[in-house]
Amino acid sequence: MAGTGDVLLLLPTRSYRTDDFLSAARRLGVGVVVGSDLCHTVEERVGAPPGLVSLDYRRPERAALAAGHPIRGVVPGDDGTSLIAALAAERLGLPHNPPAAARRAGHKAESRRALRAGGVPVPRFWTFPRAGGPDGPAREVEYPCVLKPVGLSASRGVIRADDPAAFAAAWRRIERILEKAASERRPGGAAGRAELLVEAFVPGAEVALEGLLRGGRLETLALFDKPDPLDGPYFEETIYVTPSRHPPPLQAAVERVAAAAARALGLVEGPVHAELRLSPQGPVVLEVAARSIGGLCARTLRFGAGISLEEILLAHAAGLPISALRREERAAGVMMLPIPRGGILHGVEGVEAARAVPGVEDVVITVPEGRAVEPLPEGDSYLGFLFARAATPAEVERALRAAHGRLRFDIRAPLPTV
Questions:
Q1: pLDDT tier, 1 (very low <50, low <70, confident <90, very high otherwise)
Q2: Contact 211, 228 (CB under 8 A)
Q3: Half-sphere exposure (Cβ direction) of 352: Cα atoms closer than 13 Å
Q4: Pick from 50, 75, 98, 263: most CB atoms within 10 A?
Q5: Options 3.40.50.10610, 1.10.10.10, 3.30.470.20, 3.40.50.1240; which CATH number does 205-412 get?
């Protein structure tokens, strides 16, 4: 029987999804305990939820035991909580991913090694200790290549290099980004500072698969196209549209490769978000994360009789029956609003004009006025989200682009410090 404290919901302080998860819990009649790295900040945003505990995400083994409530399921909210979710569920005797698998999935270099060992197509890659500097590695890799911090997410610090000089510049820039992340005590800032991952650049369109593992079987919930080219030098994601417009045989190949990747990593239970490139030789795995899609992007997805992705994840964790995992028939999409330049956000114009575009359902600005914003590769967030639905994916894409064209962001450089 569902009750208060049934599901431990692990959400970072900066999560946009707190409201959506709590609304889903109320619709399901499932009680939740919200575990956050800074609980007072969550409480200020959403009021006092049914249960609230403060967890130290830098010490996941301790955080896993900190709830102190009767729990029958655990839902991770992002990359930084997927390991804690696995540890907590293991300690509580609940269905879970092996903690070693969750750890592998959250570490780009370990993930690559496991995928390659499992015969899953991945880019050719190299790992290098940071202590040695960029000069030697720059002579070993092939170009173009992509440098990546092994522990950061949301494309933070991911930089393409086309020659040795660009490689060295990217290396030094990533070092500064990692030092800043560590000083902010952000997940992945300290844990991934010892080495850098370098991958051969894979040409081709990119897709994202949203899935749910149940007893080791991956069920595809949605396949998103990313119609904007992601060729670098930075890799800021913008538009996601579903259903995919790629040929059905290619979509089926994506699903097979994503399932093989989950097996190679050892993931068996809960949400999965996979990113793949469609190379001329077939799908190539870039990432398989043991969590659901980030930000507010889940609002694009509706299943069965209009249930949300958050409802599916909570119902799965609580052991409730899930009647339908089939996505609604209409096409849907989201645009993550990119940050055009760094500075202080002083305001946003054109929001109502953007909402008036046919097919657009909502415009959500997530950055408050007066807040400093920073684009990739140093930044790791967006200005907000645009949502659209229509009869076809092409109509959704057009609506999102038209709405974005009506927005104006007043971003001014901060005053120099004296």
A1: very low
A2: no
A3: 0
A4: 75
A5: 3.30.470.20
* Single pTM value for the model: 0.90
Dig out the tokens for 127 from the structure. Answer: 């790992």
The answer for residues whose C-beta is within 8 angstroms of residue 257's C-beta and 6 or more apart is: 120, 121, 276, 282, 283, 284, 285
Q: What's the whole-number mean pLDDT along residues 288-294?
A: 94
Task: Give ∠ CA 397-401-406 in degrees, rounded to 5.
Answer: 150
What is the number of other CB atoms lying within 10 angstroms of the CB of residue 222?
21
The one-character DSSP state at 346 is E
Calpha distance 94→72 (Å, rounded): 7
Instruction: Work out the angle between the directed axes of helices 39-46 and 18-28 (0-180°, nearest 10).
Output: 70
Q: Residue 166 corresponds to which tokens in the numbers above?
A: 């660009």
User: Which 3 state secondary structure label does DSSP give 315?
Assistant: helix
Are the beta carbons of 302 and 328 closer than 8 angstroms?
yes
Region class of 210: left (phi > 0), else alpha (psi between -120 and 50), else beta:
beta
CA dihedral for 340, 344, 348, 349, sign (positive or negative): negative
Q: Decide yes or no: CATH 3.40.50.20 for domain 7-103.
A: yes
Name the token pair of 331.
Answer: 């096409």
By C-alpha distance, which of 47, 45, 52 is closest to 31?
A: 52
Identify the DSSP state of 327: B
Q: For 323, list phi and psi in degrees, rounded to 5.
A: -80, -35
Confidence of residue 40 (pLDDT cuts 50, 70, 90): very low
Rounded to whole angstroms, the Cα distance separating 411 from 101 reads 41
CB contact burial 105-139 (16+ within 10 A = b; e otherwise): bbbbbbbbbbbbeeebbbbebbbbebeeebeebbe
CATH architecture for residues 124-200: 2-Layer Sandwich (3.30)
Residue % of the chain over a pLDDT of 70: 87
DSSP string, 181-202: HHHTT-TTTTTT-SEEEEEE--
| Structure confidence by residue, pLDDT tens digits, 190-199 | 555 689 999 9
